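1st attempt posting a full record on here, be nice pls
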Amino acid sequence: MSNSFDGMHPYEPEIGSFEDVEAGTDEDVTAKTGTTTVGVSTEDGVVIGTDRRASLGGRFVSNKNVQKVEQIHPTAALTLVGSVGGAQSFIRTLRAESNLYEQRRGKPLSIHGLATLAGNFARGGPFFAINPILGGVDDEGSHVYSIDPAGGVMEDDYTVTGSGMQLAHGTLEGNYDPSLSIEEAEGLVASAVYAASERDTGSGNGLVVATITEDGVEIEEYDDATELISA
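the predicted structure (as tokens):
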């Protein structure tokens, strides 16, 4: 008598393989963020900025008001980059694991531990085409990490991901200083996202900024990035 669970433990999750999907069949119908996301570390905290545009296959603007950065930890936030469905699932999973750790241990997970967990999930989980930025503050200071689709985890003073990354990097390279105040960092991040939005068709429709300090995470939206640059 055959067993429907042959070769598989009955309580393990059933996850399809990449071979089950023909390459390229969903390229035109998958909602993607395109996007520019920027993370900057300072002595006083971390500032993360993103645009608000989502597109279908990179050719049609499907949404003009996507919040692409969300709090996942008492003092950390993660950007939404790549396939919208995969990125949203990734954020929910990482937030749940962070909350579970805090409930079990009675203290928040360190930002390095959170970044390692994010890399492990990206490498081994069913999350499609993601490349987020993780920013946070803990007892060791301010941290900014980029998480690549293969699970690579890299920490830097500042980083950019998404389709507008080359344009935004040009703004950061000549203006970043680790002694920037939070307000100056917010202006720099806004300038980088604005520069990318001017030329990258996958980025635009305003700005979302997450400011992270030891006191927590604050997220603000702007219809026009120049509102924060001029401030």
